[in-house]
Structures are given as structure tokens and as C-alpha cells.
Amino acid sequence: MEIFLELLREVLKGMVREIGAYFFRKNVLEQKKTTPRRRKQKGGSRNTK
């Protein structure tokens, strides 16, 4: 019985660790913007009057 409880505890620790790593990757690492976006320049000549 004691061996079964130890095994169950190790399995639960592994699951909690993996779930924590998944959410860390999802929320922290994937939020970074790769490059700053620039406004598109409009082509053509503009007349300012």
C-alpha cells in the first residue's frame, strides 16, 4: 500500500510540473512580439494646400 501511495504521489508531482510548464510556455514565452510593427506608408504624391 505504501509503495502504491509513493507511486501515486510521484505521478501527481510529474503531472503538476508538466501542467505548470505548459501554462508558463503558453502565457509568458508566446506573448513576446517578434518584431515591432511599423505603419504602412501610403504611396503616391500628396498635395498639401
Précis, in short:
By secondary structure, the chain is mainly α. The chain is built from 1 helix and no strands.
SSE inventory with pairings:
Elements: H1 2-27
The total count of strands amounts to 0
Topology order in helix (H) and strand (E) letters: H
**What is the C-alpha radius of gyration, as a whole number of Å?**
26 Å
- First-residue to last-residue Cα separation: 88 Å
Report the average pLDDT across residues: 82
- Give the fraction of residues assigned to helices: 40-55%
% residues in beta strands: under 5%
Inertia-based shape: rod-shaped
Report on this structure.
The chain has 49 residues and is mainly alpha-helical. It is built from one helix and no strands. The protein has one helix at residues 2-27. It is rod-shaped and about 90 Å long.
How would you describe this structure in keywords?
single chain; 1 helix; mainly alpha; 49 residues; 53% helix
